[in-house]
Amino acid sequence: QVQLVESGGGLVQPGGSLRLSCAASGSTFRINGMAWYRQAPGKQRELIAGGTLFGSTNYADSVKGRFTISSDNAKNTWYLQMNSLKPEDTAVYYCKSAGLPWGQGTQVTVSS
Fold it and tell me: What pairing do the DSSP bridges indicate for beta strands 106-110 and 10-12?
């Protein structure tokens, strides 16, 4: 069974950067599209970025211009580059692809 595994989270100061990774394990089939979500304490999970292998991307207004979704086809891995991080970006971040189960998520904490 294919599983999505997120990594790359951590503690970063405001204004800093992190790159999250989403790797597909358990299969070699190519994932053609990926979305990134986040869930802050006490809030609903929200969609923040999406991308396809054809190059299309979309972002929530809250992260537009700061976050970038990309993929490495050879590694079957997707990324979320996060720059100019703010305390309000603190959340558990998840990647999701159609038909695949949610992963465990990775915690991102933005604090001085």
Answer: parallel
